[in-house]
Amino acid sequence: MSKTALITGILGQDGPYLAKLLLEKGYKVYGMIRRYSNPNFENLNYVGITNKVDYLEGDMTDESSIINIVKNIRPDEIYNLAAQSFVGSSWQQARLTAEINAIGVLSLLNAIKFFSPTTKFYQASTSEMFGIEHTSGYQDENTCFHPRSPYGVSKVYAYWITVNYRESYNLFTSNGILFNHESPIRGIQFVTRKITDGIARIKLGLAKDLHLGNMEPRRDWGFAGDYVEAMYLMLQQEKPDDYVVGTGENYSIKEFAEKAFGYAGISDWEKYVVIDPKYKRPAEVPNLKSRPEKAMKALGWKPKVSFDELVKMMVDADLERLSKK
Ligand code: NAP
Ligand code: G4F
């Protein structure tokens, strides 16, 4: 009998890569989607699996829909990727962010506890939970949380309720504390994709400039396709646990932009960038850099795509996409 998995947030960036991986491993994959009337399958089309997934209607803020899904399919594994995941919007929609990202996770865990206690659960936790500067210069599983956005705060609740249900009810629940990961199907407002899409527009004469906010923060950027393998591996372990997943390297937004412009053959790149206060955040996360030793040793995981390869992949994909249009 093949294993079954439910992926929430299947239409986002990570969902399609994870679904593809699980399908390749012989899983039956269910994907939860909230806008049943008008879903956007663009990212699933990109990885070529739209017709291979079974879709179920549910919303993280609607507990009855979550209970129905879990009760009806009782999957072997649930990967909870659904979230209001854009940090910038979390100041504008702080309550909604908490309802989706924090209370929604509680609903999923309760559904597992009451209706499918053998289901293994993956929670998409994040390096945003670490927040402010840490004297060590890196973050790992022992680093304290000090979130700097309503998004980060909501994810800290989700992290701890995942740990708590493991400890209280002996459920198999694991947190992947993933650092930033990107791809050609990254949401267009996240800074990497905004830069690569903007560069393609400038290169093709479709735009004159690119408006950005704070260029100094540093991020530990990897490729989303590599990171979904770590998610899968976490649920194949004998025991549930929490793992930091990242590359161990970081770069500033400025360094990313410089490399991406350079790759597109634009050396005088600074003249195209306009610093726009609109994109600066009320509180910033200045420096994220992982120490992923635990995931590497315990899961045997390591990133395959380098920073340079990631930048190239994203610039190429945006140039190709816009050239076709
Ligand atoms: P994403 O592209 O923003 O995708 C999130 C998905 O969640 C979207 O498909 C969205 O559905 C769905 N969603 C939002 N609100 C929902 C609701 N109320 N009910 C049901 N579904 C809802 O995010 P991602 O980059 O794939 O990231 C996946 C997860 O990992 C997220 O939880 C994110 O917070 C976390 N994470 C991401 C990173 C990263 O660097 N990418 C790092 C650490 C952690 P619609 O398509 O309908 O909008
Ligand atoms: O690309 P970003 O919006 O990603 P951020 O805030 O790091 O969050 C992402 O990674 C987290 C993991 O650490 C995830 F949990 C989260 O869901 C999301 O996937 O911004 C990156 C940096 C920030 O410091 C921001 O201030 O880029 C800076 N930035 C500068 N100009 C900008 C811009 N960010 C955006 N989105 N747009 C700009 O114009």
Largest beta-sheet characterization: 7 strands, parallel
Radius of gyration: 19 Å
Q: List the domain count as a whole number.
A: 2
* Beta-strand content: 15-25%
- CATH C-level class of the largest domain: Alpha Beta
Termini Cα gap = 44 Å
Structural class: alpha/beta
Identify the overall geometry: globular
The helicity comes to: 40-55%
- Enter the CATH topology name of the largest domain: Rossmann fold
**The CATH fourth-level homologous superfamily of the largest domain:** NAD(P)-binding Rossmann-like Domain
Number of strands: 13
Distinct small molecules bound, one entry per kind: NADP nicotinamide-adenine-dinucleotide phosphate, ligand G4F
The largest sheet has its strands arranged as 3-2-1-4-5-6-11
Q: Unreliable segments (pLDDT under 50, ≥5 consecutive)?
A: none
> What is the number of helices?
10
Mean pLDDT: 97
* Pattern of helices and strands: EHEHEHEHEHEEHEEEHEEHEHH
In the CATH classification, which architecture of the largest domain applies? 3-Layer(aba) Sandwich
Structure in words:
- By secondary structure, the chain is of the alpha/beta class.
- It has two domains: 204 residues, Rossmann fold, CATH 3.40.50.720; 88 residues, UDP-galactose 4-epimerase, domain 1.
- The chain has ten helices and 13 strands.
- Strands 3-2-1-4-5-6-11 form a seven-stranded parallel beta sheet, sandwiched between helices. A two-stranded parallel sheet has the order 7-10.
- The radius of gyration is 19 Å and the shape is globular.
- It binds NADP nicotinamide-adenine-dinucleotide phosphate and ligand G4F.
- Ligand G4F binds next to helix 6.
- The site of ligand G4F has 23 residues, from helix 6.
